[in-house]
Design brief:
Length: 284
């Protein structure tokens, strides 16, 4: 009697940042469901420097040892030519691509007063421009090929709530969220879905943060994100696109922008003292 079919049998999943943390957890999860993997990871340190090809190579070898089909791509995706080659490398190897997941990035802690222009540019390139450009490239392929596809970009709750010393990453996250919502509208009619995810998980980039030091080791592990991602990439999630979703341990939630009812001017336009007098009403 044949065994139960695997959910993602022979589907090709490209994971940027797939050699560690959330990316590796997702790679292992998709591999267990029959997917073929492209692990794109330059193997940099926490600050996004000192690239090491062996990081992605070891993760790929681990997947192959488990019986999965996997290849690695170790170029720096902050470069436009590398992003073009990632798509071509995936297609040349497997002939198709079904899912793109971007969860690459690095840690940056600088106040807006300390930040240099080149540091802001680098943060935007890695955390906003690179994922946006990859979604664009893969979406163009899917539309031209007349095949459905799914893109998921992992960003941060900083995109909505900000934090001290996190101006650059907050700005990049905001750009990603706005792009994903708009791109989903452009691509829905072609069967291409786009999502932004805001994961909170214990990884090498977050494990020394105060919030994780207070929690048990098994709480908020990277693999907690897997069920949500697999739902979004499955037939069960085929009607869902453009959402901004979060996972924090056992909590799954949606993040939405809110517009208040506000206040109305008594005349043809507001007077300054009128706004001052009704200031609280702006937020109700």
């Amino acid at each position: 009697m044949p065994g139960k079919a695997k959910e993602f049998e022979n589907q090709v999943v490209v994971i940027a940042g797939g050699a560690g943390g959330i990316g590796k957890a997702l790679a292992l999860g998709f591999a267990s469901q029959g997917a073929r993997l492209v692990i794109a990871d330059a193997g940099t340190d926490l600050e996004g420097r000192d690239a090491d090809d062996s990081v992605a190579q070891r993760s790929t070898e681990e997947l192959v040892a488990l019986g999965s089909s996997a290849i690695c791509f170790t170029e720096d995706l902050a470069r436009s030519d590398a992003r073009a080659r990632l798509l071509r490398h995936s297609l040349d190897t497997y002939g198709s691509v079904d899912i793109l997941i971007y969860c690459a990035g690095y840690r940056s802690e600088q106040s807006v007063l300390q930040m240099e222009e080149h540091e802001l540019g680098r943060a935007m390139e890695v955390h906003a421009h690179a994922p946006i450009d990859l979604v664009r490239r893969f979406a163009q392929h899917w539309v031209q090929d007349r095949t459905p596809g799914i893109s998921i970009v992992c960003t941060s709750p900083l995109a909505f709530f900000g934090a001290s010393r996190q101006s650059a990453l907050s700005a990049a996250g905001g750009a990603v969220v706005a792009f994903c919502k708009s791109a989903s509208l452009d691509l829905r009619k072609y069967g291409v879905r786009v999502h932004a995810l805001l994961p909170t998980a214990r990884t090498r980039m977050t494990e020394d943060l105060p919030v994780f030091k207070k929690l048990r080791p098994e709480v908020m592990e990277p693999d907690h994100l897997l069920p949500l991602v697999q739902f979004l990439c499955s037939d069960a999630g085929k009607d869902v696109s453009g959402e901004v979703l979060g996972i924090a341990g056992t909590r799954c939630y949606s993040v939405q922008s809110r517009e208040t009812a506000g206040i109305f001017a008594e005349g043809t336009m507001f007077e300054v003292d009128e706004i001052q007098k009704n200031w609280r009403g702006v937020f109700r």
